[in-house]
């Protein structure tokens, strides 16, 4: 991604290298779309006549729906293409898919893929603006943007905060994008979890590593829980769900170690009783539903910005 | 559902408790949409800027398509979410799904679910208006409304009629919604089928029970056949398809016991040669295709009414 | 299809019997849509208020997407119905599906089906205009039209050309539609491939048969490669992919036998290294991506023409 300060960008492949003066206006625009969503007054002509293709090589009803809604509310022609993992063979096939979508005069291409870098590869082959909707263990930039917008709405800033990201960080593109964004904006990030899921090598990203929740949550402004994929248990990286909750689940006692009124976040879908106690997920400190709402707004802002930058560039 | 006479309603969860002065205006509105569908003159702005989500936990191409068409013709942004039965765990997950769709600012939520009461549960958790598109063995209200509209168009009234509902009543939410509507409107309902599929306990619903087609069809104004699910045979509730047709299939001889020009109805899809003789399904007395047409019109009326009542309430 | 010269047509079931004065104006209209697609200036009201249903009994993301885009860009309400092969039983069921879609007031019905003649069968039962999107071994008319448009854009004519169609012709509805169109327009067609895939009986179609690429490609203006379905190998009709490429793959050496600057075409998706060398697929002579682009434009033209002819007829 071209990351010159203040310049429009043509793709959204990741947040690494993005600057505060690119991020803040995007969040401002998303904020205004959040209000328009509530009043059902979104202008229908922002993306009129534009084609948005949701190209999902991994299933994700939630993220796909969020992008689909964002595109439709702005008036785009939205096409869903779910590609069963099994029918994908080689990088070559991915490039042929890119060429096909390009020939169809696609304006916006939203891509989720199990391989890190797949959206970037596509971006080099298409005229469309590409949005990374999650690629392997790399990034999931719109998730971090929606997290940031949610934080900013509650705490008024993205700078000077202490954010604890807890759980399966090693396998989380959500964590990775959040680390880039939050450190860029001047906040401190702590990664918290067992050594199997939070290896010390992650310290290279400019973050603190903690293997005990009690240490990691102390005085945090934001506690961001990650979903524990069930396959982590079958592969032996963690013991049972019950054991995991006992040591790394977010409960009332642990949350009280954080700042008073610390925000509780989760990208969803939650495993209640595994990484988070159900009552905490539904408490006043939880902004989990607001994250979903800001998700649609952030995606509208991204689609809007990318389309404008293409056509005025 | 708030069922005060003449009042708008916020959800359509079932027809039990609905009053004639709620039902009749809805059918009038549907009638007008049926005409607009034929002339391709549906106003596109009735649901413009509104979000309709089709949340189907059970497959049903036919019903899903009917709601999708209804929403799109009125200008809504329509999103299909098919949730594989396997990925659904507990009621808790259903509530998290509700919370997510709520956060996305959904206006209309159409739900089909294998469990009775699931749409009502969702309705308590979302700001959207919920339409029950079939829940377990409970209700399928839009099916009964479209049946009613079809009957009214041909017989001019919904009162004072004798309607025979034949076949697998015990497992039919369609039958249940029809019983509520037809008895509310002042018609008599007869349930006809073998004791395994029409247990005598159903008499509590204020209907007559018959175990012989010859008795049940006598002088009926309407003969409504139900689909026999194939699993009823494998589970031993009925013998072979051939035996079933011999005793409970609708053929010419039996139909002649009903009133002259009695209407023949079926919610589809049909098992020709099992519950209904093919030539009867295609005869002049059959209004089966008109039921499908009225289905789209009824759903347009429901979506329209629910949206208006939300925003003027 | 009514094939009187110069007359509008109500369905597009195949190209057999279509006349040049039906084909040429359709390509002209498609050409203009290709330009509008590029400038994002397609008028949104051509199909406003019309319902297009994509009824696919066989999977085809590519063709389905192309029709979906075509319909949406022209403002239609587009509904996708994918019918799993397994749930389809008998011709009777297909007719019931037709009746249902008819009752829903469908204007345009795009059908792909494994059985030859299924779209024609549907066309006799519905008021909608039916477009054949591929039926068994019969025809795939929009593919041949997009091929023709691509050729015409490059060579200026569809008459007097020599077109070599190479590969699995016996199982190709694409080949069949192209043969009809190209011979109708006054070009010569050669079929090239092993006797198992290009049986001599095909000569009845008014084409030349060649079993050696070297003979078939000599002085050809257009080289059209077909996809080799993998099941042809498992069923023993061809040896390994490697052997196939050795004898029937398109490589540089063979392509040089054709006219200088002969066009290289492929309906996609390609098996690179099986029927076509990768570098040839990406060479300056390849118009494979342009075929995809013209695909959307041709489908827009077909949908437009069919709708107009229905409503002015």
From TrEMBL, chains A, B, C:
Domain of life: Bacteria
Catalytic activity, as annotated: carbamoyl phosphate + L-aspartate = N-carbamoyl-L-aspartate + phosphate + H(+)
Keyword line: Pyrimidine biosynthesis, Transferase
Binding site for carbamoyl phosphate: 62-63, 112, 140, 143, 268-269
Boundaries of every Aspartate/ornithine carbamoyltransferase carbamoyl-P binding domain copy: 10-152
Residues where L-aspartate binds: 90, 173, 227
Involved pathway(s): Pyrimidine metabolism; UMP biosynthesis via de novo pathway; (S)-dihydroorotate from bicarbonate: step 2/3
GO annotation (BP), single: 'de novo' UMP biosynthetic process
Domain Aspartate/ornithine carbamoyltransferase Asp/Orn-binding as annotated: residue spans: 160-304
Signal sequence range: none
Record PROSITE patterns: CARBAMOYLTRANSFERASE
Family per record: Belongs to the aspartate/ornithine carbamoyltransferase superfamily. ATCase family.
NCBIfam families reported in the protein's UniProt record: asp_carb_tr (TIGR00670), PRK00856.1 (NF002032)
SUBUNIT field: Heterododecamer (2C3:3R2) of six catalytic PyrB chains organized as two trimers (C3), and six regulatory PyrI chains organized as three dimers (R2).
Role: Reversibly catalyzes the transfer of the carbamoyl group from carbamoyl phosphate (CP) to the N(epsilon) atom of ornithine (ORN) to produce L-citrulline.
UniProt protein name: Aspartate carbamoyltransferase
Source organism: Acetobacter vaccinii
Gene expressing this chain: pyrB
């Amino acid at each position: 991604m071209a990351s010159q300060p203040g310049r429009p960008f043509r793709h959204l492949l990741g947040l690494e290298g993005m600057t505060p003066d690119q991020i803040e206006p995007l969040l401002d625009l998303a904020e205004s779309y959040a209000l328009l969503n509530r009043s059902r007054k979104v202008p229908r002509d922002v993306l009129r006549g534009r084609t948005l293709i949701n190209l999902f090589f991994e299933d994700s009803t939630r993220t796909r729906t969020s992008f689909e809604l964002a595109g439709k509310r702005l008036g785009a022609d939205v096409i869903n293409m779910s590609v069963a993992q099994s029918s994908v063979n080689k990088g070559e096939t991915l490039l042929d898919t890119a060429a096909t979508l390009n020939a169809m005069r696609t304006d916006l291409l939203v891509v989720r893929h199990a391989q890190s870098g797949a959206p970037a590869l596509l971006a080099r082959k298409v005229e469309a603006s590409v949005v990374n909707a999650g690629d392997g263990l790399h990034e999931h930039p719109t998730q971090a943007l929606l997290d940031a917008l949610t934080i900013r709405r509650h705490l008024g800033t993205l700078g000077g905060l202490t954010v604890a990201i807890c759980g399966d960080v090693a396998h989380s593109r959500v964590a990775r994008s959040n680390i880039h964004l939050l450190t860029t904006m001047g906040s401190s990030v702590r990664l918290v979890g067992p050594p199997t899921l939070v290896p010390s090598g992650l310290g290279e990203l400019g973050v603190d590593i903690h293997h005990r929740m009690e240490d990691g949550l102390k005085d945090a402004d934001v506690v961001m829980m990650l979903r524990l994929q069930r396959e982590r248990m079958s592969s032996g990286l963690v013991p049972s769900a019950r054991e995991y909750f006992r040591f790394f689940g977010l409960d009332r006692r642990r949350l009280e170690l954080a700042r008073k009124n610390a925000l509780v976040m989760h990208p969803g879908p939650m495993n209640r009783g595994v990484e988070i106690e159900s009552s905490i997920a539904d408490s006043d400190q939880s902004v989990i539903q607001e994250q979903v709402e800001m998700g649609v707004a952030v995606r509208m802002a991204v689609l809007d910005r990318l389309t404008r930058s293409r056509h005025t560039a």
